[in-house]
Amino acid sequence: MGATRAVQRWCGLFCLCVLVGVTSPFATEAQGSWKWTDGGTEPGTFMFGFRAGFSVLTQELRANTDTDVGSVVNLQGMYSLNKWLLAGLTLEWERRAVDFERPSGAFGHLDTVSVIPTVELRPTRYGPIAPYVSMGFGVNVNSFGEDVVTRVSPSNTFAWRLAWGGDYFVTSKIALNTEMAYKRNDGHVTIDGRRSGDWNASSFNFLFGIRALF
Questions:
Q1: What residues form DSSP beta bridges with 115?
Q2: Residues 6 or more apart in contact with residue 19 via CB below 8 angstroms
Q3: Rounded to whole angstroms, what are the CA distances from 163 to 12, 18, 115, 192?
Q4: Cα dihedral sign for 182, 73, 63, 5?
Q5: pTM of the predicted model, to two decimals?
Q6: For the sheet containing 186-191, what is the strand order?
Q7: If you average pLDDT over residues 53-60, what whole number do you get?
Q8: Sign (positive/negative) of CA torsion 169, 207, 1, 139?
Q9: Are 138 and 174 a contacting pair, CB within 8 Å?
Q10: Rounded Cα gap, residues 55 and 70, in angstroms
Q11: In whole angstroms, what is the distance from residue 185 CA to residue 114 CA?
Q12: 162-199: string of b/e by CB count within 10 Å (b at 16+)?
């Protein structure tokens, strides 16, 4: 329920920002004429982003477990190599509650911190709207907080992140952002000293936030 309320707050805030951005007189400069142009960024500039949203697993984490919709926070710093390609670093944190299915009860919560060098392709722009795709490879640092006496230690894993989304520039330098991403997080877990390969925290993340050019 806490994650659901957080998602609702973020979605409401994002919709409010979109409404303000579309109706604001400061958006006029960014919008200009609604036409297609080549490239979606400015060469030699930095782009910093802050996004938050919700995360769902692509499958069951482990046999006899049930996971809530998780929360996700994403920080990103990118540099425009030219008008269509950026490179930089993505930092992402996820948390989700994990319960037993049978017998029903709390198991604990899973935290994942991902450090992922990223490239982003922005081939075109339509007025203030700049669509993009991005991909990165890095590491997932996983930890587990138990609500039971069982000791759980998930492995750190290889991270592969594939994302697609779009920016809506409310000014020439500030953009509202929405993004959907798949992130691979498949490894093993050690439970009370016994290792098991039955542990997969790969997820789909849905993000809303802002980005700024400098």
A1: 91, 139
A2: none
A3: 22, 21, 15, 36
A4: negative
A5: 0.84
A6: 152-154, 186-191, 194-200
A7: 96
A8: negative
A9: no
A10: 5
A11: 9
A12: ebebbbbbbbeebbbbbbebebbbbbebebeeeeeeeb
Distance of CA 40 to the CA centre of its chain: 20
CA angle 98, 103, 106 (to 5 degrees): 30
Distance between CA atoms of residues 168 and 40, nearest Å: 11
Burial of 205 (0-12, 13-18, 19+ CB in 10 A): buried
pLDDT in tens, 69-116: 999 999 999 999 999 999 999 999 999 999 998 888 899 999 999 999
Could you tell me if 54 and 209 are in contact, meaning their C-beta atoms sit under 8 angstroms apart? no
φ, ψ dihedrals at 7, nearest 5°: -60, -45
CA distance 2 to 52: 14
Sign of CA dihedral 182, 210, 74, 123: positive
Q: How many CA atoms lie within 13 A of 196 on its CB side?
A: 14
